[in-house]
Task: inverse folding
């Protein structure tokens, strides 16, 4: 035992790369081990840093290496903390065993962080580090712990994310994009089981996904309740597994909530509509992974210069 300890002390003193046996490594609980060592993924919208806006530095949960600055964090709506840049040299990129994605790990200890995606155009850097909260620790800029990274950060713009399914996503996206306070809308698939589904797969009814729209909005200009009220007025929430001419379970009415507050508001609005005599069939379920749809489905009516055939505003409240 003595030999092992002194070997490690020399190793650390020489600045060698950390190993899982290194004494500077924090012990991990079972959940952290599943993500950091076994390359697992935490549930979307569940991590403590997903909606975290404070100023400071995100460091490796396992070894404490500074990885990301809060100034590079942005709200992608994907359900995990997103950064468009890393602290130089802090993050290593590796081909994921799935053959498609690029895994990111802590360059110091090799702990799994998540994946990096390029070309999605969320920010001018065109890069999204999608990181598990469980892989990170946060050091606030005003704490005495901060080192050379941290102190000068500015507060990012506060946004919230909502997910709605209400028939053909072209129409829902178009109608909700018109609201003041909406910062971005995106058509996609959610609520099913197939990973990275195609439109054809969703139409086959075997994926369980609904056509859905992800809305990133500024809650200072538009509250979730105002947004959800609009959702109930731009589609018919009494139609089961269809919307107008579009028939099939992918056209179902469903709210995928990203917080307990959203769930409460959705359920209250449904109760209010039922009180007015509407037999609402809208489901209210926790948000799961949102898969952006093919590019040709995005901003469909805007690009065609036409109006939705499938959605029209109807006052219900
Ligand atoms: Zn590390």
Result:
């Amino acid at each position: 035992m003595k030999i092992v300890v002194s070997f490690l002390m020399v190793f650390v003193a020489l600045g060698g790369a950390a190993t899982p046996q290194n004494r500077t490594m924090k012990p991990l609980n079972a959940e952290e081990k599943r993500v950091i060592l076994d390359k697992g993924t935490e549930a979307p919208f569940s991590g403590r840093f997903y909606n975290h806006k404070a100023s400071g530095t995100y460091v490796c949960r396992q070894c404490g290496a500074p990885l990301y600055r809060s100034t590079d964090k942005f709200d992608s709506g994907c359900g995990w903390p997103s950064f468009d840049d890393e602290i130089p040299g802090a993050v290593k990129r590796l081909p994921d065993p799935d053959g498609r994605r690029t895994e990111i790990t802590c360059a110091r200890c090799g702990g799994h962080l998540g994946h990096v995606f390029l070309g999605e155009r969320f920010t001018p850097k065109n890069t999204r580090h999608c990181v598990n909260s469980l892989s990170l620790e946060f050091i606030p800029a005003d704490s005495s712990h901060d080192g050379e990274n941290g102190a000068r950060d500015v507060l990012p713009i506060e946004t919230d994310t909502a997910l709605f399914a209400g028939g053909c996503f072209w129409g829902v996206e178009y109608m909700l994009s018109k609201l003041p306070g909406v910062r971005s809308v995106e058509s996609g698939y959610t609520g099913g089981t197939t990973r990275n589904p195609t439109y054809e797969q969703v139409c086959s009814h075997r994926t369980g996904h609904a056509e859905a729209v992800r809305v990133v909005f500024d809650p200072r200009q538009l509250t979730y309740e105002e947004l959800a009220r609009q959702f109930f007025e731009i589609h018919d929430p009494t139609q089961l597994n269809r919307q107008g001419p579009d028939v099939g379970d992918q056209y179902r009415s469903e709210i995928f909530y990203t917080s307990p507050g959203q769930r409460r508001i959705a359920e209250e609005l449904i109760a209010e509509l039922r009180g007015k005599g509407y037999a609402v069939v809208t489901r209210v379920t926790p948000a799961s992974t949102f898969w952006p749809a093919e590019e040709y489905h995005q901003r469909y009516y805007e690009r065609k210069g036409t109006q939705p055939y499938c959605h029209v505003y109807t006052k219900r409240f």
